[in-house]
Design goal:
This protein is an alpha+beta fold. It is built from nine helices and nine strands. The strands form two sheets. It has a six-stranded antiparallel beta sheet with strand order 6-5-4-9-8-7. The two termini are about 30 Å apart.
C-alpha cells in the first residue's frame, strides 16, 4: 500500500504484515495469493512470505481457495483493550463524580503497608499533602487504605502491615492492634471507610471498594476534601451516596472489561 514519508526507524516489513492482515475484510474471509498481492500492492513472493509467516505464527491458515485469518488475530485487538487498564475504565466516572462534588477523587491500590495512587481527578485546592499518580501514604490512616486492608484475609493483613512504610509520612493516628481491628471490622460491615485528619491535619475523605467480576476488591476510590471547608455531615450525607454509586459503576464496567474473551488458537 502507498505510504507517505516515514521516519528512519520505520520497519517496512512490519507494516507490510499489517497490510496483509487488513486486506481480509468483510465479505473476503478467504483470499488467494494473487488477491492478497493485488489488495496490498505487494509482489507475489513478498505476499507469500508474509502469509506463510502469519501461518507459522498462528494468525493465518491455508485453505481451499487460498488463505484465511484465524481467531488468534483477535488477540491483537484485545491486547489494546486490556492495555488501557483501570484508569481508562474509571476516568469518565471519576470526572462525573468530581463535577458533582467539586472535590478531588482518586483511586489507589495496596503495596505493602502503603497505598499507591494510580488514578486521580483533582480540583485545585490548598491541602496539607500533595497527591500525584504514584504518591504513597501509609494505608491505615487513609480511607482508601482502610478499604483495601479490610478486604485482606488475616494472614495477608498482618504481612502487609509488617512491611515498613516507604511513604516518608508520619501519620497523626497510630492505633493499637485492638483499635485497628475494631476499625477494620467496622469498614467490612458497612462497606466504606472514613478518615478524619488521621493522616495529616486538614485531610478528610471517604472511600469505597472497587471490585472485579468475582467480587474481589482490586482497588479503592475516594472523595477527598479539606476539613475546614467540608463538614463530616456533608461528606457522609451528600458525597458518600455519590461515591458508592460511582464505585458500583466502575466495578460493573471493569467486570465487563474483564469479560472480553481472550481468544487463543492452537
Amino acid at each position: 500500500m502507498a505510504r507517505g514519508e516515514t521516519g528512519p526507524d520505520f520497519i517496512e516489513a512490519l507494516a507490510r504484515g499489517l497490510d496483509v492482515i487488513r486486506a481480509f475484510r468483510p465479505g473476503r474471509p478467504v483470499m488467494s495469493l494473487t488477491e492478497v498481492a493485488a489488495a496490498t500492492g505487494l509482489a507475489r513472493p513478498t505476499a507469500r512470505r508474509i502469509l506463510l509467516t502469519l501461518q507459522e505464527l498462528g494468525y493465518a491458515r491455508s485453505c481451499q481457495g487460498g488463505f484465511a485469518l484465524t481467531p488468534r488475530v483477535l488477540d491483537l485487538g484485545v491486547s489494546y483493550v486490556r492495555s488501557m487498564g483501570l484508569w481508562e475504565v474509571a476516568r469518565p466516572h471519576l470526572e462525573a463524580l468530581v463535577a458533582q462534588t467539586h472535590e478531588s477523587s482518586s483511586i489507589a491500590q495496596l503495596d505493602g503497608s502503603d497505598i499507591v495512587y494510580v488514578a486521580r481527578v483533582a480540583v485545585p485546592k490548598i491541602v496539607a499533602l500533595s497527591v500525584q499518580i504514584g504518591t504513597r501514604f501509609p494505608a491505615l490512616q487513609t480511607s482508601l487504605g482502610k478499604v483495601l486492608l479490610a478486604a485482606l484475609p488475616p494472614d495477608e493483613l498482618e504481612r502487609a502491615l509488617a512491611e515498613p512504610s516507604r511513604s516518608g509520612i508520619e501519620p497523626r493516628w497510630r492505633p493499637g492492634v485492638q483499635e485497628r481491628d475494631a476499625m477494620l471490622r467496622e469498614v467490612r460491615a458497612r462497606g466504606w471507610a472514613l478518615t478524619d485528619e488521621q493522616l495529616a491535619l486538614g485531610i478528610r475523605s471517604v472511600a469505597a471498594p472497587l471490585r472485579d467480576g468475582s467480587g474481589r476488591v482490586i482497588a479503592a476510590v475516594n472523595v477527598n476534601c479539606h476539613a475546614a471547608e467540608t463538614s463530616l455531615e456533608k461528606l457522609i450525607e451528600e458525597y458518600l451516596p455519590l461515591l458508592l454509586k460511582t464505585a458500583g459503576a466502575i466495578s460493573a464496567d471493569w467486570a465487563r472489561y474483564e469479560s472480553v474473551p481472550q481468544v487463543t488458537a492452537s
